[in-house]
Fold these 2 entries.
Entry 1:
Amino acid sequence: MSDTTATLPGEPKRGSILVASDRMRRRNRIEGIFRWLGLTAIVASLSVLALMLFTIFRDGSSAFFQAKLSFPVTLEAQVLDPAGNRSRDEMVKQTTVTYGKVLEGAFLAALAEKGIQTADIPEKDIRTMLSKAGPGELRARVLAEPGLLGQTIEVTVLAGGRIDGYLKGRVTMQSAERDGNVTTEQLVLADRLKDAGMLGLSWNWNFLTNPDASDQRPEAAGLGVAIIGSAFMMVLVLIMCVPVGVASSIYLEEFAPKNRFTDLIEVNIANLAAVPSIVYGILGLAIFINFAGFPQSSSLVGALVLSLQTLPTVIIATRASIRAVPPSIRDAALGVGASRMQTVFHHVLPLAMPGILTGTILGLASALGETAPLLLIGMVAFVSNHPSGPLDGGILDPATALPVQVYSWATRSDPAFIERSNGAIIVLLVFLLAMNVTAILLRRKFERRW
């Protein structure tokens, strides 16, 4: 007999476990391809995100700086206060036209005093280098401080939009030859003013505080009204959404009987979360403005519309957080004699709080970036005055919002507004980043392990 074991017919051939089989090599190859595709997708996504952020910051960061002219101005009392009694009622009769003449005369005098050559430049072109917002700013300063009359003060006023663009590289000598709003002589004078220390770029706080401006003075446009309007709306959405959303979630998850009616409610909540935002805008226009008669383009109407849109998201996130609490927590509380209400509010809700806060803040962040519903209720209107305080009826005053302001500026033809629209996107991204960071910090603060 032989010690060799015969191989039975049809028995699979067995290889060594130390040597990879063809099937194993094929599996490893497929796994490697899948990992490579996944890594490629991540790199491509991050590359697109980095390119988008780079473009936004490249084109929008200059909006936070503004070209300004500095020169002395003599505030002649006989011109600005002919009555001579320093009465605000009398001084307010002097319009920006009068202050504009004072400002332009002082600017021409400062050029002559500095010895800057202007013989080759028409006087009209020299005057238009000043922003049209300058006379209004000087008038507001004098009305606030009547004691300045009769004195010579140093003023810093905005330069015109094209001069601002020249200092930022947006306007060049070549483009000025094709632009009817600026001449090459003005750009040459801008270089002379810069060398003399009268013209330069400085931090632009007005971009964050000023209201919107007309097409004739884009350099004065700011986000003040949009920031206030967005803040009003987010506070109102928080007040209206969170109590209703959390209460509805607790009832549906802990107390509501499981029947067809509650199933219908759950289906409708899921459907409402998927409804396009513009539908909520149409609903808000029909109900809150046409039927209820609320003021158009007010923060209150915007908050009501965004609350309707955000409420399903808050309910879904809250229910998911409550459902994630282990049933053993409920059983233990009920087992020691706690009531159903005590079980929910003393044990379940505190454990679900991190998820509730995260879902709520992310819902608010989503509402902050909405544009379509706000366009339909008139918040795209030009608003030149800041809303009043919240206790003075400011939520009923006309306002706008950050994403709507981005849209409004992006549709204007002047390149200065395109720069400001990118700057507004940066501000909006900062707000969204702050809200997401807040959500993470609150989640970690209230997180409990079981």
Entry 2:
Amino acid sequence: VRGCDRIVPVDVYVPGCPPTAEALIYGIIQLQAKISRTSTIARKG
């Protein structure tokens, strides 16, 4: 949906309607790479 990133944060765009299996896999790989680059803050519990 065009402009959805103005309302909801979008980390990875997966093109296609419907997206191909290759596009979904590429999107998942990109998301995993982004997660691994992001530092996390551990919650004390």
